[in-house]
Amino acid sequence: MANTTPLAAVHERLGATMTDFGGWQMPLKYGSELAEHQAVREAVGLFDLSHMGQVSVSGEGAEKFLNYAFTGNFSPMSVGRAKYTLMPTADGGVLDDLIIYRLAETDWLVIPNAGNTPAVLQALSERAETYRSKNTEAGTFTIANIGPERAIMAVQGPKAAELLSDLGVAVAELKFYTCAPATLSADGASQDILLARTGYTGEDGFELYCPAENAEAVWDMIVTAGEKHGLLPAGLAARDSLRLEAGLHLYGHELNLDVDPYTAGLGSAVSLKKDDDFVGRDVFEEKAAGTPARTLVGLVAEGRRAARAGYPIQHEGKVVGEVTSGALSPTLKHPVAMAYVDREFAAPDTCLDVDIRGKLQPYRVVELPFYRRTKKEGN
């Protein structure tokens, strides 16, 4: 039986179309997925992200352990910073891509993807055991699954900052990829949250972390404040089309156990300069020195037929790649796709054919992302 988030009653009240995602019952859409997509691009959208994992790694030695368990270098991070990182496998694959926050000197928050949370928790436990066996001064850090006790919401879009300012939050002080405690205030009521500024839509946006029992009150407070800003609740369908336009990876599509970070264009997430050893380091050093046979590219088409994950890509009758994600872009009004192709066919403006249910459709290679917002000061 699929898990439900603390906002399940809200989704039911709003008449959301629900779907199973990573073992969770989640809203696919509330009304029009196109309207929800456009609200995030033009105004502001509100997402329930409570299906995402939340893992606390805290105590003496936590920083060094994270350096061992993940590809990033966490030692230079100051309190209140966030880092996008990868959980590697020993043979060079990716178990998950995720964000880690430094909440205090020895207190860290790890956010795995929903379906990967059990695997990440198991890997952290196993790596902690191995790490301690190798390091007599490993420290007394602990690992705890705090996801069931918490909720996460995301406010995304060009009016997201203005909306939160209306709720008394000093958003201008919160830079991109940082987090800080905050208090939402309206009509004499208040809610304490952890506020982060990251996002997965290509727009400016914020994540709000709160106790599960306060989730509905926080949601309602945001909805009320968002009425004058054109806010719409948004589901997974809009979240996927938004991240695709922004050229952002989705685990299970652009990333998996068989894809290494260098093929995926994520070599910058692997810190080979850090002094600490980490899982798979020797393999990643070898891959970093080589040239991947395939690389991730963007594809666009002038027609209306959208390529989907798994569709083969051809060049003069020879299969040279495979689509990982694809859809008709609501913003750009034409099909876009992300795909792995043989390196010799990865240059921008290369013409390729995608086999869409037995019919070849012409596509053209472009640089990612497909959509890029105009950034404002402070974000």
Automatic annotation (TrEMBL):
Every Aminomethyltransferase C-terminal domain range: 294-371
Residues forming the GCVT N-terminal domain are 9-274
Write out the catalysed reaction. Answer: N(6)-[(R)-S(8)-aminomethyldihydrolipoyl]-L-lysyl-[protein] + (6S)-5,6,7,8-tetrahydrofolate = N(6)-[(R)-dihydrolipoyl]-L-lysyl-[protein] + (6R)-5,10-methylene-5,6,7,8-tetrahydrofolate + NH4(+)
Question: Does Transferase appear among the keywords?
Answer: yes
Q: Which GO terms describe its molecular function?
A: aminomethyltransferase activity
Q: Which HAMAP family match?
A: GcvT
Q: What does this protein do?
A: The glycine cleavage system catalyzes the degradation of glycine.
Tell me which NCBIfam families the record gives.
Answer: gcvT, PRK00389.1
Check the record and name the PANTHER family matching this protein. AMINOMETHYLTRANSFERASE, AMINOMETHYLTRANSFERASE, MITOCHONDRIAL
Q: How does it assemble?
A: The glycine cleavage system is composed of four proteins: P, T, L and H.
Q: What is the protein name stated in its UniProt record? A: Aminomethyltransferase
Query: What organism is recorded for this protein?
Result: Micrococcoides hystricis
